[in-house]
Amino acid sequence: xxxxxxxxxxxxxxxxxxxxxxxxxTGSFTLPADLHQAMEAQNFLAAPDGISSNAWKxxxxxxxxxxxxxxHPYAEAAAGASIPWYPGLKFETEIAVRLGKxxxxxxxxxxxxxxxxEAISAAYLGAELLVSALRESGGVSFLLFxxxxxxxxxxxxxxxxxxxxxxxxxxxxxxxxxxxxxxYDGPAQHxxxxxxxWLVDYANDGLRPETSLKAGALITTGTLSGAVELTEPGExxxxxxxxxxxxxxxxx
Length: 252
Fold this sequence. Notes:
Layout: H1 7-20, H2 35-46, E1 55-60, E2 66-70, E3 74-76, E4 82-85, E5 90-99, H3 113-119, E6 120-130, H4 142-147, E7 152-161, H5 165-168, E8 173-178, E9 181-187, H6 197-203, E10 218-223, E11 228-229, E12 234-240, E13 243-251
Parallel strand pairs: 1-10, 3-7, 4-13
Antiparallel strand pairs: 1-2, 5-6, 5-10, 5-11, 6-7, 8-9, 8-12, 12-13
């Protein structure tokens, strides 16, 4: 007899592991059967933190299903951002976009990339921090990783960029230092080439909540620097073209 999936129990366990800065193997968990169960657990995980930032990450599962998770803790660099450091914490340079108008679910009339660009009111330089309660992250069960908020462990919003960077981010010079050491120095590169690929996919997902992709929402669009492990606390400095973002990751 297979164990019944308990979304609330899974969320409690994930929350406890995250608070302790610990990870456990995927095999020690009962897996969600589908995306609905995974998202139910994710919502339970988000609830104790009272997440209200309206900031989200989007990506696509290995099977091509667009998925999302809230960004938390969320901070703005202009306010002197500091994100908690945990063992295994990883860092990604990203571009975030703010929606200036709703993108409602539109069955039978897919959004084009141009439609999505037209709905964007602003673009920003940002940084995502990641650490999962799962030792393998999403490598064994992507649905379990969805339940664990896609591994998000913080986001820092930096300066506003020209909106045209959603078209030309790739190839922009990017240099990142952490605790005085260079951890990335090269052209910005998105895994899909186009920073809006996953957002367009999500906009066209008929399974997403009716409340998603409303005006005012902030969506981060995927890494431009790969995922780099931060082996210790320290200051991070990002130079993307002529734009700079600085913040710290600190022991709790």
